[in-house]
Every structure is written in structure tokens, then in C-alpha cells.
Write a structure and sequence with these properties.
By secondary structure, the chain is of the alpha/beta class. The chain is built from 7 helices and 15 strands. It has helices at about 10-15, 25-35, 60-70, 90-110, 120-125, 260-270, 270-280, and strands spanning about 1-5, 20-25, 40-45, 75-80, 115-120, 165, 170-175, 180, 185, 190-195, 215, 220-225, 230-235, 245-255, 255-260. The relative contact order is 0.10.
Length: about 290
């Protein structure tokens, strides 16, 4: 178990007591690790260009690694960095980061040969074997999402999340009738409108109104009008076999059709990770394991 984010002084003892690895990049944080009761499992983080967590000072990073290795109360488990552009077509910056990190990890291995060097995220894991070092840290791909925002099946990935709701109301709109706040959708012909109780309070972006699709009875149908706090509206067309209470698949597969988080992300101008992690609110999560 590992915590790759920032930690506060009051959290360190709990991490140590749980045998949870964590990262340090300051003298202060290493001091917290040294003061904890028990063996602190530490990874030293070098900021090789992400500009987020870690130290840009390679001398400091090396010193922290040396101190961690020398102290009986701390175990130097790994050295790490994070790539900023692994998903980009231009790999020049990634190659520079990987070179800097490689040099740093080689320096550490001279006095700590068993240390784990790790840098690769999902995109680098899938496409750049030279970045794998001793270990990779897949994120979005673990959930069957494509780090390149295209089609996860390209990499043999299967989306882990299936998001469903139900038809709460089914009404026949006549030509000229409008749907939702701001009357953004106007029916051009008689069409059945299904109201589905899932809105932006549950994590569906308001940007998806009129831009994305869901599945009803295995068929793709568009989200129409503005997304409301508690509801979305679907245009089922002039004829439908759907009924109140029928399942609606917002994300995932229904028969031969599948709606991907990548589709919603493209429609909303964001990434699949934000779509997936944004789902919440009143959503009930059911976890299933597949052997």
C-alpha cells in the first residue's frame, strides 16, 4: 500500500503504523518520518519537470535518499518522479524527464542497489518501455480508461465502470414543444421524451446537454436540453418500446452498443478521468470482482 500524494505531520504515524509507503521531498517531511514510532517506508520524489510535487533540487533529493538509507528508523523503498507529457504526440519533454530521472536513480542505486525506481504512468506504461525502470504506476488504465482519450479497446482495456439509471417519466412531445431550463431543445416532430433521474448533482457535466448519448434498450439516444441538477432528458424518437422504470445505461455496455467515458469527455471538453471521478452525489456504488 502506498500514498503518492502530500502528507501532513499528523498523518505520518498512521501511515507508518499501517505499513503504508509514502513520499518525501523535504527535510521537514523526512524528519516526520524519522520521528515516527516504527519503520517508515519512504520514497524520495524528484520533480523532473511535472512542476507539482517533489523537489527540483537533485542535490537535495540525493541527500534525502542518503539520509533515509542511513537511518535505522527509515527504509528507502524507492525513488520516483511523474511525467507531464506522456500522453502527448511530441515525446521530447518526456524523454528529457526520463533521462534526468534515470541519472538520479543510478546515483541512488550506488549506495542503495535494491531501491525501486518508478516513473511511468498509464500512457508511458503502454507505449514507452524505456520508462518502466523497476516498477510502473498505472492509474487511469486500471479502470479500463484510455490515457490517450480515444478507445480503450486499442490497448485491450475494458471499462470497469457501468453507470445506470431508469426512466422516471415518459411523455410524447409535439412539434414545437421544448424541454428543460432555457428551452434549449425544441421538438421538430412528435417524439418521446424520457426523463432520467440523474443530473449534475450526481456528476454528469452540464456541458453534455445536446452533445452526448445514453443507451435505452440497447439503442443510442441523445441527451437533449440542459442537464438539470436532478435530471436529464433523452429523445427516444417518434416510436419507442421503452416504458417507465426501464433501465438507462449512461456509461457502459448494453447489448452491442457501448457508451465510453471518452465520448462524454470529448463532448464536455475534458478528460475521461474527470468524467469517472466526477460521478458521486447520490449514486450507489456496487463493486463486483471478476476472476
Amino acid at each position: 500500500m502506498a500514498c503518492w500524494g502530500s502528507v501532513e505531520s499528523g498523518e505520518v504515524q498512521s501511515l507508518v503504523g499501517s505499513d503504508c509507503d509514502f513520499v518525501v521531498w523535504t527535510e521537514e517531511a523526512l524528519g516526520w518520518a524519522r520521528s515516527a514510532t516504527g519503520l517508515a517506508r519512504v520514497h524520495v520524489k524528484l520533480d523532473s519537470g511535472m512542476g507539482r510535487l517533489g523537489t527540483r533540487d537533485r542535490s537535495l533529493a540525493l541527500s534525502l535518499a542518503e539520509q533515509t538509507e542511513a537511518d535505522a528508523g527509515t527504509e528507502l523503498v524507492g525513488v520516483t518522479t511523474h511525467f507531464a507529457t506522456a500522453e502527448s504526440e511530441d515525446q521530447t519533454f518526456l524523454e528529457g524527464q526520463n533521462s534526468v530521472f534515470g541519472q538520479f536513480s543510478e546515483s541512488v542505486k550506488r549506495f542503495a542497489p535494491n531501491v525501486l525506481a518508478h516513473a511511468a504512468n498509464s500512457a508511458a506504461t503502454l507505449t514507452r518501455a524505456d520508462t518502466h525502470h523497476d516498477m510502473v504506476r498505472c492509474g487511469v488504465s486500471i479502470y479500463g480508461l484510455d490515457p490517450f482519450q480515444l478507445d480503450p479497446s486499442t490497448w485491450g482495456l475494458q471499462p470497469a465502470m457501468r453507470l445506470t439509471s431508469r426512466i422516471a417519466s415518459l411523455e410524447l412531445a409535439q412539434a414545437g414543444d421544448t424541454v428543460g431550463y432555457g428551452r434549449k431543445f425544441k421538438a421538430e416532430r412528435p417524439t418521446w421524451i424520457a426523463t432520467v433521474p440523474f443530473g449534475y448533482a450526481d456528476g454528469i457535466s452540464r456541458q453534455l446537454g445536446g452533445k452526448a448519448e445514453c443507451l435505452v434498450g440497447g439503442l443510442r439516444v441523445p441527451i437533449v436540453g440542459n442537464v438539470s441538477m436532478d435530471n436529464i432528458a433523452l429523445d427516444l424518437g417518434p416510436e419507442t418500446e421503452a416504458a417507465v422504470g426501464d433501465q438507462v445505461v449512461l456509461l457502459g455496455r448494453d447489448g452491442e452498443q457501448q457508451v465510453l467515458a471518452e465520448e462524454w469527455a470529448a463532448a464536455a471538453g475534458t478528460i475521461n478521468y474527470e468524467i469517472a471521478t466526477g460521478i458521486g452525489g447520490r449514486t450507489e456504488f456496487v463493486h463486483r470482482s471478476h476472476k
